[in-house]
Batch of 4 targets.
Target 1
Amino acid sequence: QPQLEESGGGLVQSGGSLRLSCVGSGFLLDYYAMGWFRQAPGKEREAIACMNNAGTTTNYADSVKGRFTISRDNVKRMVYLQMNSLNPEDTAVYFCAASSTPRCPGAWATWGRGTQVTVSS
């Protein structure tokens, strides 16, 4: 059964950086686009980054473009989200997801449980 698990969340001051990690198990990442999402309290889940299966194409939400970078290592079954210049509006639970297709935007079939990111002002 495919599973995803996020790690790397925490508390950081405004202007700081964090790197989130996501490890996949039960399936090969090679064939699927991978994405990161976030959900802040009282708000809908927001798609923030997507990378195709080969790692050659990325999409970002305008809210994170230029600050966040998605990357992947298919051999290690890992996906990363480097987050720089964080601000309090980035506070949310961050989720990793695997698509059922190789390209972005994905058809999101598998989700992790999320990791909390809190940015203090």
Target 2
Amino acid sequence: QVQLVESGGGLVQPGGSLRLSCAASGFTFSNYDMRWYRRTPGKDRELVAYIATTGDTINYSDSVKGRFTISRDNAKNTVHLQMDSLKPEDTAVYYCNADRLVEPGIRSNYWGQGTQVIVSS
């Protein structure tokens, strides 16, 4: 059974930090690119961070660049999102996503259930 389970969300004051984790099971984690997305009511889903299978390629959205850090541990089947200098506009539900190109035109794609992050004083 494929599972992606996020954890680490919560309430934090502006300027604070949180570390999100996503634990994967039921598939070969090291074969999948990993992404963190976030969604806020009334807004489109936003891609926040990306890390390739081996961690050699990492990208961030402009809105979080310099404040968030994505990392992965293929031995532990986990991906993390370290969020520093948090702002109220970072408030959202954060989702991890696993994605792999199986063959041209066919992707294998999994989602977690999300974890709520609230940045407020």
Target 3
Amino acid sequence: QVQLVESGGGLVQPGGSLRLSCAASGSISSIYSMGWYRQAPGKSRELVARITSAGSTYYVDSVEGRFTISRDNAKNTVYLQMNSLKPEDTARYYCNVHVVTEDSTSLRSWGQGTQVTVSS
């Protein structure tokens, strides 16, 4: 019912920047929140950043001040601007959205993930 298309991952040197995008489409009436999780090999998935429909944001401590989450409500798209990247930011990043569908169902959807590798 809801499709997510992610883009923007890649290989970057320490200190570099990347911007991730995630566009949601499908049977969407409204979006409660949009966010990014990440999972590194051998580690559990963690919430990196989230933004609500009201514009409130949350960041995990390790990215505070380096990452910025934003959204374009008209395009149902969320962005994650990642600056001053560190090797420990290397992970697969997943988009997650919490929506209300057109048949009034509350639904959480995951993207396929995009790889971010920070290495010299």
Target 4
Amino acid sequence: QVQLIDSGGGLVQAGDSLSLSCAASRLPLNYFMGWFRQAPGKEREFVAAMRWSDTYTNYADSVKGRFTISRDSAKNTVYLQMNSLKPEDTAVYYCAADYSLASWRNVRYWGQGTQVTVSS
């Protein structure tokens, strides 16, 4: 069982930056840890992920070059630095962890979600 606690959302203006964090109770080395987001009326979508055993990272095309995922292994914590935020980034952001984050439907472990709102 993995428990995730995510935090750091808020209300910002377009072009601003925001950082999210997610602390895991435990995280096996063969797990991925990352972020999804869900805007009102839309399906949950992948944002970014990293494999806990090495430096592999993956990003959605919509956030490449603007968002950076990083971690503090000693704290079992992953971060999402979001720069140059756009109104279309507005969503509830969910931390996720599992053997694979290829599809949100198969992910077993989720944070409670944190709201990010970007005003124009």
